[in-house]
Amino acid sequence: MLQINSMPDHIHIFIGMRPHQSISSLIQNVKTESSKWIKDQNLCSSPFAWQEGYGAFSYAKSQVPNVIRYVQNQEKHHQKLSFLDEYRKMLTLFNIEWDERYIFKEPE
To answer: What's this model's pTM, rounded to 2 decimal places?
Structure first.
């Protein structure tokens, strides 16, 4: 774990991984264990659930300090750009084809 920071509607987790490790397994574990913890701690008045899916992006080792700062400054960053707008921007910057039907939804 290099850096983690949460906002009311999403979380950023910056980690180092080895080639044999599975991103989907990691995300499944994070979602499962955090959901159990949130439920056990009675942190939500209504049932808690993560949205389906996730976004994962890779960075060069030389970019680590910049990405850590980016994750640390989420609250300030999202005053200028919403999470969903930022997500669309990152998909475009990383040349990832995407369909609006499958983009995360605003929390209800």
So the answer is: 0.80
